[in-house]
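quick one, 242 residues, struct below
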Amino acid sequence: MNESSPALDGLLLVNKPQKCTSHDVVDFVRRHFQIKKVGHCGTLDPMATGLLMLVIGKATKVQDLLMSEDKEYSGTLTLGQNTDTQDADGVVIESKTVPELSPEQIETAFAKFKGDFYQIPPMVSALKKDGVPLYKLARQGKTVEREPRLVHVYSYKLSTIALPAIDFSLKCSKGFYVRTYCYDIGQDLGCGGHLSRLERTRSGNFSLSQSVTLPELETMNSTAELQSRVLSLAEISRIRRQ
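---
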């Protein structure tokens, strides 16, 4: 950023595409706009798309507050295959025939994972064991015990059932693993399953509809151009209170 460029402090909502990491998006914004302080409010896996919230400048001070918001997702559970990552990016480690499940049987399985319940975080995650991220241990072929975490599903909806695929949406608490949600439901249905599509549509009162795409960011050549898409600290506060 040159001396004449305005300093930026605020929240940038980005529609993350597939195949890039959350860190890739942060790094792009940092380098492209020459901004020193940029962070994100909750990782999206490479296969996932949707709302990635970037805090810039002084807004990094409210990063933890924004990360604590409830989340909303749209996804697809594919039955019949378990993978080592619990999603489509992993290696298939078990395959089973998907039985002729009725909509009622599927609804019953999803209903078991509503409200408060415990999840065991996946090995392929950013959680740390003795200071080492679990995904690094998983790459070494290691599996360690993980403490179950209390999570909450406020609501869910089954939009399309076309076995082996089930399209769904849900609203959940922070720290929720949709991959594990799909794995657990697949186990309950007796045939296994994994997350094959995921899009984050909302975090707190911040919506994907407010976001900017990476191609749009790539066409901007200065922080002055970017500023119109950055929510100020006052706007962040107002939207959170809505």
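The chain has two domains: 10-68+205-241, 71-202.
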